Structures are given as C-alpha cells and as structure tokens.
C-alpha cells in the first residue's frame, strides 16, 4: 500500500532533513510570486488579491511568501530545486508549474539547481479570465526536467504534451490556487509505478491525492499550518485501503 507523510514547515527548513535519493519524482506548484505587471502590484497585494476574482464568493485561506521580485524568486527557487534534486533519485523527473511571467525565471532556477530541462507542457484552462483588448489568459505551464538522462526503461509511458482542465469549483475547491484532480492524475504518471512523489508546496494536497490514488507514495511539505490541516484529511482519505487502485477523485472529502 502507498504511504504518505506531510511535514508542516518552510520548504527550505524541511528539505535538508530529507534523505538523499529517497523519492522517485518531484512534482510541485510553488507560489508564482507574480500576479502583477509592476513591482508595486506584486508586492502590495495578497495572494488572494492577485489570484482570486474580486467577485468570488468563497473565503478560501490566503497564504504568504508570494511577494518576491524576479531575482529573489529565481534565487529562492534555485535553492529549493537544488534540494529536490538531491532528494530525487537518478533519472527521476521534475514537474514544476509556472505562469508566463515567471517561466524564464523558473527555467533558469531548475537548471541552476542541476536539473536537465526537457521541455514545457502547456496547461489550457477552459475557464479563465478574459483580457479586454487582447488574448484571454487561458494557459499556465509545466516545466519538465530530469535528474540526468530520461529513464524510459523504468517507466515507458507516452504522455501528452498539452493538457486541458479547469480548476475545481464550488465545494470541490479548497485552495485558491488548487490544481485540477484530472490534470494531476495524468501528471503523476511521469513517476515510476509504486514510486514516491515529493511536493515541497503541498497546498490542499492535489499532487499527493493523485499520487496515492495511482498507487504511488507521497512526501509533502506545507508552510501554512491551517492549509496543512486541510490537506491531511484529504490525503488520509486518498490513502484509505478501500480506495486502493483506481480512485474516484471527485468523491474526495474536503
């Protein structure tokens, strides 16, 4: 049976305590530290103010650590991803989410950390914000990298280079930047079967839920104690024995 661990604390404090080569893949959605086109917009607003529509009726928890400028973000992500590189075994993949503003910084950071950059996987969001006078912001990006050569012999999957999925809505949404369950269920396939997925920015646990549902184990880190409190019962539900094998992601308790 797959197992899971969720550490509550800052990623750069917890990651150095984890053993080297102890996971088989890193899949993570870090805070983007963007959300505004100017420094004032980026540093004066909360994460909720940047990423949630003004007319939203939900009261999902805010989170901090989302106000670094681009140089600070690049340096910080380099440190985080260097630890992830150490903790991931040889040949293991890295998937890291980003938006258009931080895509160059993220690609720099993962390479500075030692990863071999393999490509960009667009994530199309059918439900997204319109842009008056221009193009709808209907896409975010997943940067793919590996620790050394691609280890296709261990995991001979053929995965799409483009995904389309909408964020959870209504009661299914428990985090302001929550990723779609069906998207994460596809992405964890890049990890070898029965492997262990690391996510240093666990949030509501979408990565871990997808990993556990697929028979993979999960190691997560979440800085916010209240948000970690949301993730734990969701992860426990996904790891329950009655949910072994194919898991009904839409029935996960929130």
Automatic annotation (TrEMBL):
Region (Disordered): 25-47
Listed Polar residues bias regions: 34-46
Gene3D superfamilies, A to Z: Vaccinia Virus protein VP39 (3.40.50.150)
DNA methylase N-4/N-6 domain segment(s): 25-226
Membrane-spanning segments: none
InterPro entries in alphabetical order: DNA_methylase_N4/N6, RM_Methyltransferase, SAM-dependent_MTases_sf
First-tier enzyme category under EC: transferase
SUPFAM superfamilies in the cross-refs: S-adenosyl-L-methionine-dependent methyltransferases (SSF53335)
Record EC number: 2.1.1.-
Short name of one Pfam family: N6_N4_Mtase
Keyword list, A-Z: Methyltransferase, Transferase
Similarity comment: family membership: Belongs to the N(4)/N(6)-methyltransferase family.
Protein name: Methyltransferase
Source organism (scientific name): Streptomyces galilaeus
Lineage: Bacteria, Bacillati, Actinomycetota, Actinomycetes, Kitasatosporales
């Amino acid at each position: 049976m797959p197992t899971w661990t969720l550490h509550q604390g800052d990623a750069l404090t917890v990651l150095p305590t984890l053993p080297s080569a102890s996971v088989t893949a890193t899949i993570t959605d870090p805070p983007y530290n963007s959300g505004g086109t100017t420094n004032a917009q980026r540093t004066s607003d909360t994460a909720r103010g940047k990423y949630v529509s003004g007319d939203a009726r939900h009261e999902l928890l805010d989170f901090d650590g989302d106000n670094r400028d681009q140089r600070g973000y690049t340096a910080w992500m380099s440190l985080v991803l260097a630890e992830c590189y150490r903790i991931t075994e040889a040949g293991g993949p890295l998937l890291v989410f980003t938006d258009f503003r931080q895509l160059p910084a993220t690609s720099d950071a993962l390479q500075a950390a030692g990863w071999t950059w393999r490509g960009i996987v667009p994530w199309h969001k059918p439900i997204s914000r319109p842009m008056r006078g221009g193009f709808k912001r209907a896409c975010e990006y997943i940067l793919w990298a590996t620790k050394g050569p691609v280890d296709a012999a261990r995991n001979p999957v053929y995965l799409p280079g483009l995904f389309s999925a909408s964020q959870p809505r209504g009661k299914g949404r428990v985090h302001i930047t929550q990723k779609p369950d069906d998207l994460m269920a596809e992405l964890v396939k890049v990890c070898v079967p029965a492997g262990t997925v690391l996510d240093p920015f666990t949030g509501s646990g979408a990565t871990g839920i997808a990993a556990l549902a697929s028979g993979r184990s999960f190691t997560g880190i979440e800085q916010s104690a209240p948000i970690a409190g949301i993730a734990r019962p969701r992860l426990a539900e996904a790891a329950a024995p009655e949910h072994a094998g194919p898991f009904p992601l839409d029935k996960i308790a929130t």
